[in-house]
Amino acid sequence: MKKAILLLILSLIAVHSAYAEPIKIVATTSTLEDLIKGVGGDNVDVTYIVSSGVCPDHWDLKPSQVAALNEASIIFQHGMEGWLKNVTRPDQKVIVLSGPWNTPQMAINKTMQIAAALKEADPEHAEEYDKRAEMLVERFQNVSKILSERAKEAGTENVKVLCMEWQSGFVSWMGFDIVKTYASEEKLSLKDVNDLIKVGRENSVSIVVDNLQSGVNVGEQIAREINATHVVLTNFPGAVEGTETLDKMMLYNGEALLAAVSGAA
Length: 265
Known about the structure:
This protein has nine helices and eight strands. With about 260 residues, it is of the alpha/beta class. Helix 2 crosses helix 4, helix 4 packs antiparallel against helix 5 and helix 5 packs parallel to helix 9.
């Protein structure tokens, strides 16, 4: 009798595990959402807040998003989202993944942080999270190999660039010679713009790199003034066609830079 009861309990536990609800997660951006889905698979139910074409430190929450945040068990953020402070519950787990993410190694670092967080929250599926994280890491390593080889062939180290600061990590990783970086256009004065034009001319800069989410009008103006190619990169998946995932976004950004090198040659 006792054995039969034990078997019944174990079978009920197995059924519960098989049909357990996925962890409700809110990510502030499409970058974090993509990585969490990649690691979490069917074990997570994840949505993101900020539209991929917008900088995440400027956002007005909608009522539906406040509700989603309230229902989440875990919230992942970058650390720049000041608007998040007054809408989280004391009992919610809020995980901050600070620092840039737009190079393969940076993305790998974030992947491993997410895997660790999910394993802590849901140790029952730890092995699954590890396997998915490993597959995601392989994708970023493949991107790294492809773009590194192409950058070397293109001789990017000989190409001088003015670069929006939020893209400087990726542009530098691609081997370009960054002469000067600049802030988002809302922070640039007329003097700043004129100084950038002067630096661009004096250093024979051939490419001006902008970040889509921080504005592109000033970069376009500078490129026109110094007769350089204007390239717009994106920092969040989904903002541009063909950038649905973070690895595809990196490939898109890399191809855009390499095309500019070919055009400037």
